TrEMBL record:
The lineage of its organism: Bacteria, Bacillati, Actinomycetota, Actinomycetes, Mycobacteriales. Keywords: Membrane, Transmembrane, Transmembrane helix. It comes from Nocardia stercoris. The keyword Protein transport does not apply. The chain crosses the membrane at residues 12-35, 47-69, 75-92, 104-130, 136-159, 171-189. It comes from the Bacteria. The keyword Plastid does not apply. This is Permease.
Length: 190
């Protein structure tokens, strides 16, 4: 009986981890991906490594923020879902067509700086998620650690002509709202 509950909780944490990964990294993709197609393979590899280090820095900041949130009483944890909902609503409200993005020269430093700068809002979404899952918050972090470099590496190998023009879709805001709703409803589900 308890192993079924634990399995359900781990699967739920994995699902929320994937959902938060997608919702928090759409804006990063718009800026980072075009730079992957500039330069040779060695430069791309360094760029991806820099992006990975930047992503680790963002996750570390989110984990530290989540540790600070442990002072909240357990019953209040579900209310942390309000933060991602507000972030999603702000994203939808301010979603306007971005002007042409400048081309970045791919390097490890560029990847690190851009990923860290774009990841500041990710901390506001990830910290409540990690705190809400308690011990399983590590599953959410692990999903991000595994998916981020994998997604960048796959896109780096793609042909830009087949992917078409990149836009910042409203989907990110809706997905972030879904993450918040899952946190709010988590007490009822689990």
């Amino acid at each position: 009986m308890t192993s079924g509950i634990v399995t359900h909780q781990v699967l739920f944490a994995l699902g929320v981890g994937v959902l938060t990964f997608v919702s928090t990294n759409i804006d990063c993709a718009v800026v980072l991906i075009p730079s992957l197609w500039v330069g040779d393979g060695r430069r791309r590899g360094r760029y991806i490594a820099g992006c990975g280090i930047g992503n680790c820095a963002v996750l570390a900041a989110a984990a530290l923020a989540a540790a600070g949130l442990t002072r909240l009483p357990g019953a209040w944890t579900a209310w942390l879902g309000v933060v991602p909902i507000l972030m999603g609503l702000l994203s939808i409200r301010r979603n306007s067509p971005d002007p042409a993005q400048p081309q970045l020269i791919p390097s490890a430093a560029t990847g690190l700086i851009v990923t860290s700068a774009l990841g500041v809002d990710n901390v506001l979404v990830l910290a409540p998620v990690i705190r809400a899952f308690g011990r399983l918050g590590g599953v959410v972090v692990l999903v991000h650690l595994l998916l981020f470099p994998t997604a960048l590496a796959l896109v780096a190998r793609a042909r830009p002509g087949r992917l078409g023009h990149w836009h910042r879709p409203r989907a990110a805001g809706y997905l972030t709202i879904a993450v918040g709703a899952l946190l709010l409803g988590r007490q009822l589900i689990l």
